[in-house]
Write a structure and sequence with these properties.
Elements lengths: L1 H4 L4 H14 L3 H6 L11 H15 L5 H14 L8 H32 L20
Helix pairs in contact: 2-4, 2-6, 4-5, 4-6, 5-6
Protein backbone atom coordinates (compact mmCIF):
# COMPACT_ATOMS: atom_id res chain seq x y z
CA UNK A 1 0.00 0.00 0.00
CA UNK A 2 2.77 2.43 0.89
CA UNK A 3 4.58 1.70 -2.38
CA UNK A 4 1.47 2.82 -4.25
CA UNK A 5 0.81 5.81 -1.97
CA UNK A 6 4.38 7.07 -2.41
CA UNK A 7 4.16 6.75 -6.20
CA UNK A 8 2.69 9.05 -8.81
CA UNK A 9 -0.57 7.10 -8.37
CA UNK A 10 -1.65 9.17 -5.37
CA UNK A 11 -3.28 11.87 -7.52
CA UNK A 12 -5.20 9.47 -9.82
CA UNK A 13 -6.41 7.44 -6.82
CA UNK A 14 -7.59 10.63 -5.09
CA UNK A 15 -9.40 11.75 -8.25
CA UNK A 16 -11.02 8.31 -8.61
CA UNK A 17 -12.22 8.22 -4.98
CA UNK A 18 -13.60 11.76 -5.19
CA UNK A 19 -15.41 10.99 -8.45
CA UNK A 20 -16.97 7.86 -6.96
CA UNK A 21 -18.06 9.80 -3.90
CA UNK A 22 -19.69 12.46 -6.10
CA UNK A 23 -21.42 9.77 -8.21
CA UNK A 24 -22.64 7.86 -5.15
CA UNK A 25 -20.60 4.75 -5.99
CA UNK A 26 -18.53 2.68 -3.55
CA UNK A 27 -15.00 3.03 -4.92
CA UNK A 28 -13.82 -0.23 -3.35
CA UNK A 29 -16.65 -2.28 -4.86
CA UNK A 30 -16.04 -0.72 -8.26
CA UNK A 31 -12.41 -1.88 -8.23
CA UNK A 32 -13.43 -5.54 -8.30
CA UNK A 33 -15.24 -5.24 -11.64
CA UNK A 34 -14.04 -2.01 -13.25
CA UNK A 35 -15.50 -2.56 -16.72
CA UNK A 36 -18.84 -4.15 -15.96
CA UNK A 37 -22.10 -3.30 -14.27
CA UNK A 38 -24.51 -0.44 -14.61
CA UNK A 39 -22.02 2.06 -13.18
CA UNK A 40 -19.28 1.17 -15.69
CA UNK A 41 -19.41 4.59 -17.37
CA UNK A 42 -19.27 6.58 -14.12
CA UNK A 43 -15.70 7.57 -13.26
CA UNK A 44 -14.33 5.45 -16.12
CA UNK A 45 -11.65 8.01 -17.00
CA UNK A 46 -10.44 8.24 -13.42
CA UNK A 47 -10.36 4.46 -13.05
CA UNK A 48 -8.45 4.11 -16.32
CA UNK A 49 -5.88 6.61 -15.03
CA UNK A 50 -5.44 4.41 -11.94
CA UNK A 51 -5.19 1.27 -14.11
CA UNK A 52 -2.47 2.93 -16.20
CA UNK A 53 -0.55 4.20 -13.17
CA UNK A 54 -0.49 1.15 -10.88
CA UNK A 55 1.65 -1.10 -13.14
CA UNK A 56 4.42 1.50 -13.25
CA UNK A 57 4.33 1.88 -9.47
CA UNK A 58 4.54 -1.87 -8.88
CA UNK A 59 7.03 -2.69 -11.63
CA UNK A 60 10.47 -3.60 -10.36
CA UNK A 61 9.43 -4.94 -6.97
CA UNK A 62 10.98 -8.08 -5.53
CA UNK A 63 9.15 -11.30 -4.80
CA UNK A 64 6.70 -13.69 -6.40
CA UNK A 65 3.69 -11.35 -6.80
CA UNK A 66 5.80 -8.71 -8.55
CA UNK A 67 7.44 -11.27 -10.81
CA UNK A 68 4.10 -12.88 -11.69
CA UNK A 69 2.75 -9.58 -13.02
CA UNK A 70 5.94 -8.20 -14.53
CA UNK A 71 5.11 -9.06 -18.15
CA UNK A 72 1.61 -7.55 -18.06
CA UNK A 73 2.84 -4.49 -16.14
CA UNK A 74 5.59 -3.86 -18.71
CA UNK A 75 3.03 -4.05 -21.51
CA UNK A 76 0.98 -1.24 -19.94
CA UNK A 77 4.01 0.88 -19.09
CA UNK A 78 5.09 0.63 -22.74
CA UNK A 79 2.01 2.51 -23.94
CA UNK A 80 1.68 6.29 -23.90
CA UNK A 81 -0.77 7.72 -21.36
CA UNK A 82 -3.46 8.62 -23.87
CA UNK A 83 -2.84 5.81 -26.35
CA UNK A 84 -5.97 3.84 -27.18
CA UNK A 85 -7.00 0.77 -29.14
CA UNK A 86 -7.76 -2.91 -28.77
CA UNK A 87 -4.18 -3.79 -27.89
CA UNK A 88 -4.10 -1.18 -25.12
CA UNK A 89 -7.47 -2.33 -23.75
CA UNK A 90 -6.32 -5.95 -23.66
CA UNK A 91 -3.05 -5.00 -21.93
CA UNK A 92 -4.96 -2.93 -19.34
CA UNK A 93 -7.38 -5.80 -18.65
CA UNK A 94 -4.56 -8.33 -18.24
CA UNK A 95 -2.57 -6.00 -16.04
CA UNK A 96 -5.60 -5.19 -13.88
CA UNK A 97 -6.48 -8.89 -13.50
CA UNK A 98 -2.94 -9.72 -12.40
CA UNK A 99 -2.79 -6.74 -10.06
CA UNK A 100 -6.14 -7.68 -8.55
CA UNK A 101 -5.06 -11.28 -8.08
CA UNK A 102 -1.69 -10.44 -6.50
CA UNK A 103 -2.20 -7.02 -4.89
CA UNK A 104 -5.89 -6.91 -4.05
CA UNK A 105 -5.47 -6.23 -0.34
CA UNK A 106 -2.99 -3.32 -0.67
CA UNK A 107 -5.09 -1.73 -3.42
CA UNK A 108 -8.28 -2.15 -1.42
CA UNK A 109 -6.60 -0.68 1.68
CA UNK A 110 -5.26 2.25 -0.33
CA UNK A 111 -8.71 3.13 -1.65
CA UNK A 112 -10.32 2.61 1.78
CA UNK A 113 -7.75 4.92 3.37
CA UNK A 114 -8.31 7.47 0.62
CA UNK A 115 -12.06 7.33 1.22
CA UNK A 116 -11.58 7.87 4.96
CA UNK A 117 -8.97 10.63 4.75
CA UNK A 118 -10.30 12.30 1.61
CA UNK A 119 -7.07 11.93 -0.35
CA UNK A 120 -4.41 9.36 -1.09
CA UNK A 121 -1.29 10.07 0.89
CA UNK A 122 1.51 7.97 2.36
CA UNK A 123 1.80 7.29 6.05
CA UNK A 124 4.23 9.52 7.87
CA UNK A 125 6.53 8.87 10.78
CA UNK A 126 5.02 9.47 14.20
CA UNK A 127 6.91 11.56 16.75
CA UNK A 128 7.51 10.40 20.31
CA UNK A 129 7.97 6.69 19.59
CA UNK A 130 10.96 6.71 21.95
CA UNK A 131 13.25 4.94 19.50
CA UNK A 132 10.89 2.04 18.81
CA UNK A 133 11.40 2.28 15.08
CA UNK A 134 9.41 3.88 12.32
CA UNK A 135 5.86 3.81 13.56
CA UNK A 136 3.43 5.28 11.12
CA UNK A 137 0.05 6.87 11.31
Amino acid sequence: QQRLAHSACAAPVTAYVRCCRAAGIDARERLASPLSGEDAAACANELEAVARCVPGALLGGKGRPFEACEKSFKAVVGFADKEEGEEVDLALKRSWACMWRSFRQPMDQLVAQSQAVGECRPASAVNNTFGKGRWTA
